[in-house]
User: Which sequence fits this backbone?
């Protein structure tokens, strides 16, 4: 988990150095290009990554600073993942409420005004990308531990696309929104996969996602807040 966090932060800094100099759709395209570059590297560097076969490994033992080691079980993995997610949420919540987080919100609302005030826009955007990369690295490490397997498909743009869907479905600009969106997406995925084959179940999911973007741009969380405040 520590190595995954460290590696993700390095890759995030590398990508952020180039992508944060761009804005809007150009920023998104640049990050997608880097994701595909990393996927090609992982897919072809067979001596290290195993290529298309991936890597099979034994899950590490669960311990706290080397004390009380124990093997991972489905139940312990569940609670361990929940604890890591809770810690990440609390850390991100603290960051968003700090002066650094306030600057990020100012950049989101009006980048030119924030630049005119004197904030270092590129620095703050780089740190934001690195934070997101660290969270993605933690998620990837947990996913690998759970499956005892790491495949190059994890680097494919489909994974990035699903993450974007989580955010849009749940509500952009919130911390709880992506969690709600991920839960809703997985439920829809499991529901439709019982009626359609794996090749076609994403069609109704995509249609629902398109309708949500058109009629519920604030996401599920924003929609529920609006309904409750009426």
Assistant:
């Amino acid at each position: 988990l520590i190595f995954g966090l460290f590696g993700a932060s390095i890759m995030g800094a590398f990508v952020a150095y180039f992508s944060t100099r761009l804005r809007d759709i150009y920023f998104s395209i640049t990050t997608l290009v880097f994701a595909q570059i990393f996927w090609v590297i992982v897919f072809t560097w067979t001596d290290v990554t195993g290529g298309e076969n991936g890597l099979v490994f034994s899950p590490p033992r669960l311990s706290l600073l080397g004390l009380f080691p124990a093997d991972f079980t489905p139940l312990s993995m569940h609670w361990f993942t929940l604890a890591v997610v809770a810690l990440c949420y609390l850390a991100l919540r603290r960051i968003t409420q700090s002066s650094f987080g306030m600057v990020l919100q100012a950049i989101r609302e009006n980048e030119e005004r924030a630049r005119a005030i004197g904030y270092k826009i590129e620095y703050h955007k780089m740190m934001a990308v690195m934070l997101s990369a660290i969270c993605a690295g933690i998620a990837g490490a947990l996913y690998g531990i759970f499956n005892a397997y790491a495949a190059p498909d994890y680097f494919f743009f489909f994974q990035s696309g699903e993450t974007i869907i989580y955010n849009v479905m749940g509500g952009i600009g919130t911390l709880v929104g992506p969690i709600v969106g991920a839960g809703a997406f997985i439920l829809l995925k499991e529901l439709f996969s019982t009626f359609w084959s794996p090749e076609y179940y994403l069609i109704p999911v995509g249609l629902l996602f398109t309708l949500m973007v058109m009629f519920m741009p604030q996401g599920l969380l924003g929609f529920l807040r609006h309904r409750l405040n009426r």
